[in-house]
Amino acid sequence: MTTQVTKPRSTAVAPRSLRPNPAAVPLVLALLLIATAIAYPLTSGGARDAVSWTIVGLGSALSLVHAGTSRGRRTALGLLLLVGGTAVAFEAVGLATGFPYGEYRYSDALGPTLLGVPFLVPLAWLMMAWPSFLLAEHLARRRPVRIAVAAAVFAAWDVVLDPQMVQAGYWTWTHPQPGLPGIDTVPLTNLAGWLLAGTVLMTALDLLVARTRAAGSPRIGPAAPLLALAWMTLGGALAHAGWLGLPGSAAWGVALAVPVLGALALQRWRR
Question: Phi and psi dihedrals of 84, rounded to 5?
Fold first, then answer.
């Protein structure tokens, strides 16, 4: 009688150093976004337009990749559909009626449109929405507070961004006054509209994440999107003050960042 010897299956585990780091791709996208944003004030004309489109592309990709990596594919897909649909709905109504932002119009520089809304606009919302949500999630545990903080950060980001985009000629306001002190090209109604849109979007996004995230998530931390958010606000304020001739929005960017930085410092101190 012969005895058959079977070779045991290998159960070797790949060395830790050879395993792919799930946080690597979001971090690379964030660093590319920052590098591209630095190039914005150093360019002009068609080159600046290309930089703007690249920033939006990298920012939206960062949001989707991080959402998928940290919470799962269902969350990433839901994020894309929710933010895209909400952006088109609010912007299309805004263009047709002037509510809730005030009367404005887009230029042809932003390319193809859907219901009058350039395709780049929903991608810009996506770039802004996910980091704003993550920051609020980091700062607040109670849902109402978390939603309010996320909506405020979402709107504050636009306070810095909108004057830059008006300067670039991407859209114009029919009645830009009254505006925030130091900003004479964007009306206060725009800020009110962003707070309303942000509240609606962040309420839906909070529910979406709770219902779709994969077990055991978040799988990676929010470092990459929050790094991008920090640079796009504080770095944007620096660019506005030093290169773009927009001291008002630069000052507002710094002023709006102070409460967030204070809250982060207080949270760290309490730990």
Answer: -60, -45
Q: What is the pTM of this model?
A: 0.90
Q: With b meaning 16 or more CB within 10 Å and e meaning fewer, what string describes 46-83?
A: eeebebbbbbbbbbbbbbbbbbbbbbbebbbebbbebb
How many C-beta atoms surround the C-beta of residue 184 within 10 A?
A: 13
Residue 111, CB half-sphere, CA atoms under 13 Å: how many?
Answer: 10
Helix axes 45-71, 73-97, angle to 10 degrees: 140
Q: How many CB atoms lie within 10 A of CB 226?
A: 18
CB of 150 closer than 8 Å to CB of 136: yes
For 86-123, what is each residue's pLDDT tens digit? Answer: 999 999 999 999 999 999 999 998 989 999 999 999 99
Which residue pairs, CB below 8 angstroms and at least 24 apart, start in 86-90?
86/125, 86/197, 86/200, 86/201, 86/204, 87/117, 87/121, 87/122, 87/125, 87/126, 88/114, 88/115, 88/117, 88/121, 88/122, 90/193, 90/197, 90/200
Residue with tokens 């919470």: 71
For 85, 122, 123, the CA distances from 64, given in Å and listed in that order, are: 15, 13, 10
Three-state DSSP state, 106: strand
